[in-house]
């Protein structure tokens, strides 16, 4: 047990799709969802990150037309604000995306992570950091009290079902870890 655990070096979120996706809108929805998850992890631990790396790849088993690319986005100020991160992720993804290439995997890594306080700001910052912090706290409070993903950004997609979501068709009932399910079966 450590009184002051060291700050994480990086946070990553990525998923592999069941089939390749070449629709830019669907890829933006997936990327936005991943940014929200990574930002929630940052805020939960009281952290901020200054650098975000976005990457995408096609099916690695198709050697002839395999594609992999990555782009880095540096924020002017370390932040855990989801809206700032989503804008940065879309800007970075512009250099990664190629038309007619079905992406099989998409993800991001947050680096240069620091503690939330003390905060170094810009002299002429266009973003009200106190208001941003209050908004993110309210969003996290609602999502923790209600249900995960009760409130999320529209860029994460409003359409149902989402082609990029993980499918759990062959998942076991997990009776050993979900006691409510076990008691219901008995």
Itemize the secondary structure elements and their pairings:
Blueprint (H helix, E strand, L loop, with lengths): L10 E11 L2 H21 L2 E11 L10 E12 L2 H15 L6 E13 L13 H17 L33 H7 L1
Antiparallel strand pairs: 1-4, 2-3, 2-4
Helix pairs in contact: 1-2
Distance between the termini: 39 Å
Largest beta-sheet characterization:
4 strands, antiparallel
Helix content: 25-40%
Q: How many strand elements?
A: 4
The coarse overall form would be globular
Percent strand: 25-35%
Order of strands in the sheet with the most strands? 1-4-2-3
Q: Return the structural class.
A: alpha+beta
Give unreliable regions as ranges: none
Q: Summarize the helix and strand pattern as letters.
A: EHEEHEHH
Mean pLDDT comes to 80
State the assembly state of the protein chains.
Answer: single chain
Number of helices: 4
- Radius of gyration, CA atoms, in whole angstroms: 19 Å
Structure description:
Strands 1-4-2-3 form a four-stranded antiparallel β-sheet, covered by helices on one side. With about 190 residues, the chain is of the alpha+beta class. Helix 1 crosses helix 2. It is globular and about 50 Å long. The chain is built from four helices and four strands. It starts with 10 loop residues before the first strand and ends with a helix. The model has no long low-confidence stretch (mean pLDDT about 80). Helices cover about 30% and strands about 25% of the residues.
